[in-house]
Write a structure and sequence with these properties.
Order of helices and strands: EEEEEHEEEEHEEEHHEEEHH
CATH architecture of one domain: 2-Layer Sandwich
Number of helices: 6
Largest sheet: 6 strands, antiparallel
Structural class: alpha+beta
Strand content: 15-25%
CATH class of one domain: Alpha Beta
Helix content: 25-40%
Length: about 300
């Protein structure tokens, strides 16, 4: 994994799969406890591995798209953004945010049947334990988005579906209901905005934090090709895999014969070839431009 850059005036505190966190230093040189600099790298992860090949400009695309979505969603939920005035070394891919008490649940909503939800449905007729009608296929649209939370697994392990009763046990009934309703409304609002622009958001993962006064705040990133499945609206046809803007393209190459990688081996995936890197970058940029209707500038 590429080392996090050194930034004068900031102390590096943590690196995740794709983000590096820093604490601003106060006048005495001590890390502040109320703010965090959130830096999106060009790293990309798949199947719980950080790949050795970065995707150029990915960090900027995700940061700029999240900022755009935060504005679209501002009437639904407050967000943690404090400032986009950041060091030149990370300009365009970093934001200064509130430090929050993060909710210990992966808040996932699904508008369409696909992925792990499809596998469970085909086996049991359910998604995250929720009974669904018979006859659904890959790409079927639900009448209303489903809240399908999961655990926050330790780094390198896979998140597991989490029954709603477990969310209630973790955060309380009122907070669980708030998380469920906000997650579903964010995905519904996202599709209201995205569908006329040619993109369907099949599902998404949302991060929430809590302020000291108990207010729920939207955090991290939102409705990006990393946190969501983006499909081409014009090509949507239930019954098969949909044309995608997200990193499913990378997953497909990794599990193809061309990669030579065995997903069950436990070994680090191989480096991505140049054409896969270029096409993945192009998909991220295309999604950004379709949604924002602005030209991406690196």
């Amino acid at each position: 994994m590429t080392a996090a850059p050194e930034l004068p005036g900031y102390a590096h505190t943590y690196s995740g799969k794709v983000r590096d966190l820093y604490a601003p230093l106060d006048d005495s040189g001590q890390p502040r406890q109320d703010q965090v600099l959130l830096v999106a790298s060009d790293r990309i992860s798949a199947y719980d591995f950080i790949l050795s090949t970065p995707i150029p400009d990915k960090g900027k695309v995700l940061t700029q798209l999240s900022l755009w979505w935060f504005e679209q969603l501002s009437s639904l939920v407050p967000n943690q953004i404090v400032s986009t005035d950041v060091p030149d070394a990370v300009a365009g891919r970093a934001v200064l945010v509130e430090r929050l008490d993060m909710v210990p649940v992966e808040c996932v909503a699904r508008a369409y049947l696909t992925g792990g939800g499809l596998s469970e449905y085909e086996a049991d007729g359910t998604v995250s334990g929720l009974d669904l009608p018979a006859g659904l296929v890959d790409g079927s649209k639900f009448d209303e988005p489903l809240f399908t939370p999961s655990t926050k697994a330790p780094f390198g392990e896979h998140d597991q579906p989490m029954p709603y009763a477990d969310v209630v046990a973790e955060v309380g009934a009122d907070r669980a209901a708030e998380l469920r309703d906000l997650t579903v409304r964010i995905l519904a609002r996202g599709n209201e905005v995205a569908a006329p622009r040619g993109i369907l958001i099949a599902d998404t993962k949302v991060e929430f934090g809590v302020r000291a006064d108990g207010t729920i705040v939207l955090a991290d990133e939102v409705l990006t090709p990393d946190s969501s499945r983006f499909w081409r609206a014009a090509d949507w046809q239930p019954g098969h895999r949909q044309a995608s803007y997200d990193k499913q393209f990378v997953r497909d190459w990794l599990t193809s014969e061309a990669s030579g990688w065995d997903r069950t081996s436990g070994e680090q995936p191989p480096a991505l070839p140049d054409d896969v890197v270029e096409q993945t970058r192009a998909k991220y940029v295309e999604a950004y431009e379709a949604l924002t209707r602005e030209t991406f500038r690196a």
